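fwd from M.: "can u put these together and see what the complex looks like"

so here's what she sent:
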Amino acid sequence: MDERPVESSVEWVFREERGRLLATLVRRFGDLDLAEDVTSEAIEAALEHWPVEGVPDRPGAWLLTTARRKAVDRLRRDQAYAARLAVLQVEADRAAPAPPADAGGDLPDERLQLFFTCAHPALAAEDRGALTLRCLAGLTTAEVARAFLLPPATMAQRIVRAKKKIREARIPFRVPGADELPERLPGVLQVIYSIFTEGYAASSGARLQRLDLAEEAIRLAWILRRLLPSEREVAGLLALMLLIHARREARTGPDGEIVLLDEQDRDRWDQSMIEEGGDLVLVALTGGPPGPYGVQAAIAALHDEAADVASTDWPQIVALYDVLVALAPSPVVALNRAAALAMRDGPEAGLALLDELADEPRLRGYHPYPTARADLLRRLGRFPEAAAAYREALELAGTEPERAHLRRRLHAVETPGA
Amino acid sequence: MKYMLLIYSGATTDPACGVEDWMAYDKAVREAGIRVSSESLADLTTATTVTVGPAGERTVTDGPFAETREVLGGYYVIDVPDLDVALDWAARCPGARGGGSVVVRPVADFGL
């Protein structure tokens, strides 16, 4: 119950319980479909009985007992299915013996294995986030579809496809060993962060932010942080998301238009979320070499702590980008580093770095690249070139608020002095 | 659960990956008690393709020749508990290195 108590409605409580229950049942029966079905049935039963008979002392145990009974009933009716599952279970135990039950909690928390299964590299990248939201955030398929702006039927097909692969290729429900963790954990973090970024800067559609997905990602990261308290990159990812999400109110204007960092009303930033994120940055950067999420969180913290753009600690931000370039080199990181360097050393220096990235194939079609160039050209007073770069960015930008912002900037450089 | 590891050769042959590596891998698979079957295939230039048309007419052609750079060079069928174990064995296979790749496919099970 120490997760963020964002809501206290009945549905919310069940969403939390759903993931735990599902994970426990998957461990018990080795079958995701069966576990999902009986989880839903147990929750329906609770909705029916609890208002009449009162909430039991151990609601989690009540749900588990009910779900198990329903699963056993179903397996009695379908002997062939039961036989197949029995084989599965024996082999699963051969691969990874069941952990001892957690004596302290109402229900043992076995969600970690489910995180790793849903983010398994053998699943299609676009299916991992959907499956994670479905199984661990407790969203219905329709809710997941709405979050990704996809027709429910399309989302249902994706989830069915992913579950079929888990079942038929037998992707195991297991937590990777300590030796595999460095290879597998980044995949789980990537899934959560991509849910967050999808919610934060919707790649298409009219609304710039879809708060639900960003908050779901944060909630998933809180769960993961509790399950893996000693993994500093989990703290780093959570810190990064909190420190970005803290600016959500200031990020759009009254008409939904985009407000960039330099123009945001910083009084509208969520100070308690910034503090929470700041504490986690310390965790992420203490006790060993930093990871990429920890470093990105530290950069976000420097922005969040500054009173305005001018007093931002740009030398420190550039230094952190240098660390990030070494840890996780990518053209996008190089682009962000160039933008920060332009703040420290002036637009000319930043532009020189950006021009070095001109032939980078991974930046082709990526609208922040021409946007960054255009902004620096504008600051240098090279308006015709800036206008050309804004036009290029406009061709590529996905959301309407982003395009509106670019049109305003374009208009300003087309009519300088106006 | 049975998985077939299909071993595709890459564009270049990694000189670091020699006969000894294959022998060591083969020995490891056998000693782990997971090998169901395995073969390596003769050179692609020895391949012959057969198709039978709608009227039952048989067409035999030389080839196929490597149109893509990847050529199936051999396979293992192994029996292991789950995909993660199969992927580990695929990653240990010398054919996964030097530009080659190993495709892991579950063997369809119609028995249960």
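replying to her w this: The helical segments of chain B are 19-31, 83-92.
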